[in-house]
Amino acid sequence: MSGIYAVTEHQSDEALDDISYEMLDAGRRLADDLGEELVAVVLGADVEAFTGELGVADRVLAVEDDALAQFNPMAYADAVEGILAAKEPRLTLSSVTSIGMDVAPAVADATGTPLVSYVADVAVEDGDVVATSQLYGGKMNVDSALEGGAGILAVAAGAFDADAGRAEGTPDREDLAVDVGPDGVAFQQLNEPEAGDVDITRADRLLAVGRGIDEEDNIPLAEETADALDAALASSRPITDNGWLPKNRQVGKSGKTVDPDLYLAAGISGAPEHVEGMTDSELIVAINTDEEAPIFDYADYGIVGDLFDLLPALEEQAGG
Amino acid sequence: MDIVVPVRLVPDPVEELDPGPDGTDIDRDWIEFVSNEFADHALEEALLIGEEREDASVTVVALDDGLGDVEEVLHRAAAKGADRLVSITGVSPGAPASEAAALLAGFLAEEDFDAVFTGVQSAEDRDGQLAGRLASALDLPHLTVITSVAVDGDTAAVEKEFGGGVTADYAVELPAVLGIQAAREPPRYVTIRQIRNAMRDADIEAVDAEDLGGSVTPATSVVGLQEPETGERAEMIDGSAEEAAGEVIEVLEDHGIRV
Q1: Which residues contact B75 (CB under 8 A, 6 or more apart)?
Q2: Residue of A129, A152, A254 to mutate when probing chain B, most B C-beta within 10 A
Q3: 23-82 of B, contacting A, C-beta below 8 A
Q4: Using CB atoms and an 8 Å cut-off, which of residues 174-213 of chain A contact chain B?
Q5: ipTM greater than 0.90, yes or no?
Q6: For residue A223, how many C-alpha atoms fall within 13 Å in the half-sphere facing its CB?
Q7: Which residues pair with A301 in a beta bridge?
Q8: What is the pLDDT at residue A247?
């Protein structure tokens, strides 16, 4: 077994997703520490457009097939399984994105390869790789040892540095022929997000509410406070999953990335998937009843308290 | 149309977690376990399809590791409209996805079903998410991060979520394993009385994990567990709601944010 193989991802036809370069950052560090080669795996119908910024890798391994033109979990898993069989990588890097969650567990099961998911940090100790997973909504870091440093690591989005993993250049490319097929899953069409009424990525001030808002009937309370603060209303994932606010208000991994002057988080615990979308905010103020909530690690100012007391108090005092 | 919904119990997200005595797992004493919130969405999506189709039945299979109140979770599912309740007992505490997949594959090998709806992820998926592993073990198609399912004959039309609000439509041949991110509607609410009635009327079929073979992927070993290193903690503002709100307004104005 040799080599670190990073399985890059792309939603569009034009460019790799940032997670690909985050994997390459993690992969470069592992490759250097283990004395291995770093290989960027690129999958698609025509991968030419994706190979221009892979200068961090030592080689490119391409699998081209019409079944890989758009993301297909079965065809992608076939391709990665084919690479594992042909190249026997020491480590394979995937992710915890919508694509990675469809590919890594299936490949791990089919090939009997150990998999560690939600990886936010990696270390090499005596030839073994220790991967740190962020679990329980960011409340606990769990270290897993991969014996001989071999297995699959699914990295958490935002944990590694995409800028460090991105460099101009196209390393030598090898093409591998793998038998891939859609196996019962057919891509139909991509849907771009609806513009919606409010663009939270352009708002200077955001009031974001999370699970702590408890029920849909409490949303107007948050709306009133947001109005008083001249802020737009945003939310964490559970709120949009429940349909209490439209999808275009969601901050975080499956939503938007925002960087307002003020981010006021109310009743948001601060799971990694949420924090990823808001850490670049200028000033972060958090309200949460749980003094241990991870959000207080990212906030500039924090209040341990009930948002149902604090939001009305803020509304009343705004404009005073 | 028979839909199977596996449910795992996970630590209540509001619980404060500590490393356990041997440092390889969280301390599972004295904390509450609740059904994985994504499994609640998977159940809701299954129930919605159940309401749309007369021929549909929903089976909920809970993995019982002896820590949470699995019966309550199953009775709640029955109160919501699930048709059949199964408990797989003797599961190891906090069983990872590989073990859950092996057990469920063992159970489903003897079952007729058209679809399995799993929660897209769980708090304890250290070795990956359930849907892909289970589909591989059953040799079925799979797709995850799904926000709606419409069944038409032998095909499910599903919407999959990517990042940044982008979604894609797929057609998936049934039977298949679908990892549900969010149901089309918020998970329904049931009253204590409805749960009590379900408790009286509903049977739970118990299956022993030992009777469900299945190969488990070699797991990696946990060598350490620690609470995340806190960066610089927020400066905390104390006092009554009025006092704290006043101080927040001052902080905002100090940062040039006039309200």
Answers
A1: B85, B195, B198, B199, B202
A2: A254
A3: 26, 37, 41
A4: 183-194, 205, 211
A5: yes
A6: 9
A7: A285, B235
A8: 86
- Is A73 close to B144, i.e. CB distance below 8 A? yes
| Residue from the list B125, B144, B168 with its beta carbon closest to the beta carbon of A187 | B168
Which domain covers residue B66, as residue numbers?
2-211
Note whether B139 contacts A: Cβ–Cβ < 8 A. no
Q: What is the pLDDT of residue A236?
A: 95
Give chain A's residues under pLDDT 50.
none
Give residue-wise pLDDT tens across range A261-285. 999 999 999 998 899 899 989 999 9
CATH of residue B147's domain is 3.40.50.620
CA distance A43 to chain B (A): 17
- Pick from B54, B59, B76, B168: nearest CA to B110: B59
User: Has residue B241 been placed in a domain?
Assistant: no
Q: How much is the pLDDT for A295?
A: 94
- Report the number of distinct structural domains present in chain B: 1
Class of A4-175 per CATH? alpha beta
Is A255 part of the contact surface with chain B (CB cutoff 8 Å)? yes
Query: Which residue among A110, A113, A141 sits closest to B226, beta carbon to beta carbon?
Result: A141
Q: Is A142 exposed, middle or buried (0-12, 13-18, 19+ CB in 10 A)?
A: buried
Structural Rg of chain B based on CA atoms: 21
Q: In whole angstroms, what is the distance from residue A149 CA to residue B99 CA?
A: 22
Q: From A289, which residue of chain B is nearest by alpha-carbon distance?
A: B14
pLDDT at A314: 95
Please name the residue of chain B whose CA is at the shortest distance from the CA of residue A244: B186
Best of A78, A80, A98, A116 to mutate (most B CBs within 10 Å, chain B): A98
User: Which positions 54-113 of A are in contact with B (Cβ < 8 Å)?
Assistant: 70-71, 73-74, 77, 97-99, 101-110, 112-113
Every domain range in chain A assigned CATH 3.40.50.1220: 205-317
Phi, psi torsion values for A39, nearest 5 degrees: -115, 125
User: pLDDT digits over A186-231, tens only?
Assistant: 999 999 877 667 889 999 999 999 999 999 999 999 999 999 999 9
B-facing residues of A in 263-282 (CB < 8 A) are 269, 282
CATH topology classification for A205-317: Rossmann fold (3.40.50)
Give the closest-approach CA distance of A153 to chain B in angstroms: 9
pLDDT at A272: 86
Query: Is the CB of B249 less than 8 angstroms away from the CB of A305?
Result: no
Examine residue B220 and state whether it is found in any structural domain, yes or no: no
